[in-house]
Write a structure and sequence with these properties.
This protein has 166 residues and is an alpha/beta fold. It has five helices and seven strands. Helix 2 packs across helix 3.
Length: 166
Amino acid sequence: MRRYTNEARPSAIARLHLLADQSTDDKQYADIMSDLGRYLGSVLVGHIPEDEDVCVAVSVEDADFLARGMLDAFSSHGIKYHLACFWNERQVLGAGRPIAPIFKRYVEPGARDAKVLVVLKSVVSSACVIRANLLNLIDSMNPREIFCGGAGGLHGGRVGCEGGFS
């Protein structure tokens, strides 16, 4: 059963349904992910303090369409952003505990000075990728605001994101 957050509007929900449709081709998929990124960016715009730089952290597989859409939304609202892109390798430890160590990263100049951190993922599942990328960045920056999320999520993904943080 699908459930949606309070922020999900009918247009975004319609786009999510198209993603799940097996007849959606590659071009449509790219357009939908870009649209969802723009939608998520427009939702966040209202929560980002004026004149604050934003660091948008993504995994490489989300950098092309989802992140591009979010960055387009930020740009259209005059928000200055910096990109941090991570290459993660998902692994499973004993007892089925997933981890996602980073084996490569690209962090734009100024990203570590940003006061707002957005960690974006297309699908939040076990949240091990989000946690790895978030922990890597907060170790070297001091954000005032942190936003984590994505276009979709599996049951329990949010708990995985929040686990271990207070």
